[in-house]
Amino acid sequence: MNGWHGRLLHVDLSSGVCRYEAIPASWLQSYLGGRGLGVRLLRETYHLDPFAPEMPLVFACGPLGGTSAPTSSRLAVVSRSPLTGTIYDCSAGGRFAHRLKGAGIDALVITGQSAQPTLLRLSPAGATLEPAQKLWGERFHATAAALQSASESVAAIGPAGERGVLFANIMMGEGNSVGRGGLGAVMGNKRLKAIVVSGDQRPTIADPERLQKGRQDMMRLFKASPILFGQLGIAEYGTPTLVDLMTQRRMAPTENFRRTVFEAAANYSGPAIRKAYQSKKDGCFGCPIQCKKSTPQGEHLPEYETVSHFGALNGIADLHSIVKSNTLCNDLGMDTISAAATLSAWGELRGRFPSADEVQKLLLAMALRQGEGESLALGSQRLTRAAGRPEFSMSVKGLELPAYDPRGAYGMALAYCTSNRGGCHLRAYPISHEILRKPVPTDRFSFAGKARIIKIAEDTNATIDSLVACKFSFLGASLEEYGTILSGVTGHDYSPQDLKEIGERIYLTERYYNLANGFSEKDDTLPPRFFSEAGSSGEGIDVPPIDQARFNEERRKYYRIRGLTDDGSFKDPAWLGGQP
Amino acid sequence: MIRQLAKYKGKLAADGCAVSERIAFLARDDELLSDGPQELVQLGAAILEQLSAVSLVLAPLALPVGDLLIRRAPVGESSFVPRDTETRTFLHDIPFVRLEKGESPDPAALAQLLRRRKGVIVEGVGIVAIGAFTPEQAYIHYCSVFHAALVKYLLDLLHDGFSLAGEDEAFAALRDAWLQPVTLEGVTFADKGVAGREAIYAEIARVGRYTVEKGLVDSAFGNISWREGETIYISQTGAHLDELEGYIDPVPSDNSSTAGVTASSELLAHRRIFEETGARTILHGHPKLAVVISMLCEKSDCSVSDCWRNCPQVRQLEVTPIVAGEIGAGGLAEKVAPVIGERGRALVFGHGVFTLGRDGFAEAFNALVEVENWCRAEYLRRLEKRLQKDV
Ligand SMILES: [Zn+2]
Fold first, then answer.
1. What separation in Å is there between the alpha carbon of B353 and the centre of ligand 1?
2. Between 3.40.30.10, 3.40.225.10, 3.40.50.2300, 3.90.870.10, what CATH number should domain B191-386 receive?
3. Is the domain defined by B2-178 classed in CATH 3.40.50.300?
4. Are A176 and A94 in contact (CB under 8 A)?
5. pLDDT at A84
6. CATH code of A97's domain
7. ipTM > 0.85 for the complex
8. In sequence order, which residues have a C-beta less than 8 Å from that of residue A281 and are 6 or more positions away?
9. What is the chain B residue with the closest CA to A231?
10. The whole model's pTM is what?
């Protein structure tokens, strides 16, 4: 077998038994790896409660991991989200992913619940479980420092994951995180504090020349992309390069989405961060783009969504407060978008948004579930429901929306709703064409044609998450180049169209799981604010509320294009059984 | 969406890539929409339904270079690699399909090729191109395939002469219809009369339109800028040069704002050129004969094989320097800026032309026309010389 190792490691924390299992070749070819493989591996268990001990937590690598394919030292972590109740996956890059594949497996499947806090140590020689009582309660950086060595990488939870904060992250040694849906809480519920992995077993490559050709084609396209390698692109400024653009486009969510322009946003723009922190390039292992930024001391600086939500969304203009909030969330092991958005919803509830120096206290209370933090730790949907004001939760399926106001990008509006993991910008990433003009610009204030674009992009991104590659590479390259690379690595011929069909299968499997777990058309919608309140119009840009009837019409088109019924369910109730 | 189909049909015809009445343009929303002759629409629909794509365009080429290339290709070959760098970067290679006289194309076989690539040439039928997201993409891919085919044919012809029965007549028709000098008829420039941001936008938009109308670039390619003080006003990435209203980014030279991240991929080149020359305007197009001529090199004992990227020479074509370098961060900016100042023009190997103006666009536009006209004449002169060898 080329590209894949063909086996997984199953660790049962209840019994302490670790054993290797073969993965059927047909699964690998039909689901690739990463998100797709993880989703396939959950077929018997997707209906379990996220906190049921038997619920698997899957760390899945992809066929491109361990090869020279650009942006591909990544993995997907897959389980069911305690925050949203949906099937959940998150892609993360870095050395941990690289070494997990280097341990000679395609996936690590963790089930059960340990009686005591435990630590999993993993290498090509096998796996061992060790007590981790001493580490329990430690923040992430202390945990990583205690465990990490030059040849090992660590994934661990912080206090937030231990205490079941519903948007707790799994953090990785180089600042990569498995974010958003609370898989850190799933790991904490299993009493698994950390995973330490080493290994450098490389998969064999079927056709190195073809891989090399695809790699060169891709690098040329990266260099041609102003968003990636331009002087104002993300390689230079990181994703905060979007701050100025989102302000200019009048779609930066401000004060819990009551407004869409924040006058002080320039305080935390890409150039402002660079100036204040002398930031340097940083990023995932094996990635030529290096879009992350850090201080000369190595402190990771926040991404666009984080600066905007700890900034505009809470009405905070102080860059240092924002950076502190980001660092604190990372150390506590907590998702920055959901944390900031939950604080913002809470701010609207009480009639006052948190001040710049109040935020960190609140974050700490949230992670430790103390006082006010107890209800904040459940996320904005549960918080606002309990307060009798559910409309203040700016979320879809319970997942807090990131920093792209849907009134300023109608494809984004639809994609938030059709995303299988709730209100996420990355599932179809329409910002790419509606704002960044790649691969081709579309009219952001129009629904026309968006249903099919979103469908195709969702399929494409499901594939990318299964290779596992970075979605930013699609601001330059396309499935054509990844098809060449994957064919070169595995020796199986994958055309871009084949890859889209694989993505479609993965997407539909996820939707099938969600529907079986009780989701329906009524969950595929936005908070009412977006249909009734205008954004901040001005400077020749009008930001009206979204036309609900037109939105519903496009959503219906989307269901039809997906081959679903008009209310978004499966025509064939036995569809799943027919899949490989 | 149906309006989009008509719009891009019009553009294909205006660019001179296809003939209006023979263009079938299709797109899928939740239903199939189409515009064009019925038999072509039918074939297009049969292909599109097998693909996960939004749009498809199918049309005979306005010049017969597709069929000529296919018929000249060695038996057993089924694709060609574009010689021009931009098409090669985005399309990699272009498959083609041979058809016997009277044989009709098989939609399944064409869909099979389009599962892999963005466009294909079918003998006797034309170019079929698809767009994953929008009709505009299908239009762009059609133009790219056409551009690549024309450039490759002209280069091959210069190298090998005629090799098919009747090819000389076909070429003569092509020459008479298309290879004529570009005129300056109908173009005027405001230059020193331009004052203020709105006037700059209007002038950029106007000159962008001229560049397309005169056939010096296909609509969705090229870029254009005006420098005023510490700000560069530049066309956005993916903008159409003949529709620039609303698609120009002001970029401050101190990078105090990054809102210009959507600016042209050649922002870097424009900045370097402004820094180096103090010019006021820059124009960049892909005039086809300049692209062809830029790739002719007489050097025989050269160790460089990827000339488009790594040729270290500054070659001189009459008064125009030719340099290598790939787009964006691929090295072109560093090579063009030092050489463009002297005569206000530079050619990039296999890619296109940069020109500049000191007061406004008149100088830049005139230079672009001059370079292309010189290259057209030069091509015909060299071709004649080459054909004499065969006699
Ligand atoms: Zn160009």
1. 8
2. 3.40.225.10
3. no
4. yes
5. 98
6. 3.60.9.10
7. yes
8. A235, A290, A292, A293
9. B268
10. 0.96
